[in-house]
Amino acid sequence: MNDRPLVSIIINNCNYGCYVDKAIESALNQTYSHLEVIVVDDGSIDDSREVIARYQDRVIPVLKENEGQSSALNVGFNIAKGDIICFLDADDLALLEKVSEVVNVFKNNPDIGWCFHSIKVMDMKTGKLLKRICHDNVYVTITEETKQSRSQKCDFRASMLEQGKVDFIIPPTSGLCFTRSLLQQIFPLPQYKTHKTSADRCLKFSAIALSPGFFLDRELTIQRVHDCNAYTARSDRQQYMARSILIMANWMRVRFPELAKFTNKSFAKGLSIYWRTGGVEASAKELVKKYLASISILERLGISLRAVYYSLKIWER
User: Which of 90, 109, 174, 286 is deepest in the core (most CB within 10 A)?
Assistant: First the structure.
């Protein structure tokens, strides 16, 4: 990587007309100037496209039909020319020094393929800062006890391959940055008509399985939690998360069969969430059928036992 790599910031948007302007401005106002900003609008029916048009001389706009977040990221990556790729959801904000700090990490660690950083989560109603917690993908108010400094180089490849697990809470889309060479091993991401968000799950777990990386414990993005969040505001969030896990397990099983231990454990986790939330929904039954058909009877038994274990473990909380 040269001393001044080109950075591509890919903003994916769908019906966030009231937020996307601030996201674009936060990308354009970076202290690091050697960058391009790509804004992919995934079939918005609000005023998003009129807002994006105001920046058409400063960004690369892509207007497409609604096919979901995976499709938007696929299109954005195909257009991007950067050596480093950073993703930003349209309702989030990149802090001014984000790209500069991420570039420094990649330059100082030439063997890594990804850099994930902390995010600042803000409740738009109260203005309070929140922190994501793992087990239900929900948020709690930050206290002194929840603050940790964990910046470090990471390599989860062996644990994912040999144990099928990773003890790391990975940030959402706006906290993910990659080298182009790593993303070329991963893209395109899977597209499903019945599941149009949470594409980052396939992206980030594939990345940490393929390459060492760096976790930068600096809050370089603000995630704005509001009533219209495509994922966090859903009333069926648990089932939606379970479906995204099953999609990831199916896709990664095919793309990276050597990660069978990880995909089996992930599938069991998704199944356990369905069991405790009323059963597998119709739109996910084909995912369950497809995965189980691709594995041995012994693996099916192991998944069933693990799903029971996960369900009991969750209920004990």
Answer: 90
**115-131 residue pLDDT tens:** 999 999 888 778 777 76
Which CATH number do you get for residue 136?
3.90.550.10
Distance (Å, whole) CA 213 – CA 177: 10
Count of domains forming the chain: 2
Decide: 76 and 187 in contact? Cβ < 8 Å. no
Task: Using the 3D structure, point to which of 182, 198, 225 is the last residue of a domain.
Answer: 225
Q: How far apart are CA 113 and CA 286, in angstroms?
A: 33
CA distance 94 to 80: 18
Asked if residue 286 and residue 209 are part of one domain, the reply reads: no
Residue 177 lies inside a defined structural domain of this protein = yes
Question: CA–CA separation, 20 vs 47, rounded Å?
Answer: 10
**Residue 32 — φ and ψ, nearest 5°?**
-90, 120
246-277 pLDDT per residue, tens:
999 999 999 999 999 999 999 999 999 999 99
Q: Please report whether residue 231 resides in a domain.
A: no
Peptide bond into 188 cis (omega under 30): yes
- The DSSP output letter for 161 is I
Give pTM, 2 decimals.
0.90
Residues 119 and 152 in one domain: yes
Nearest to 220 by CA among 115, 133, 126, 127: 115
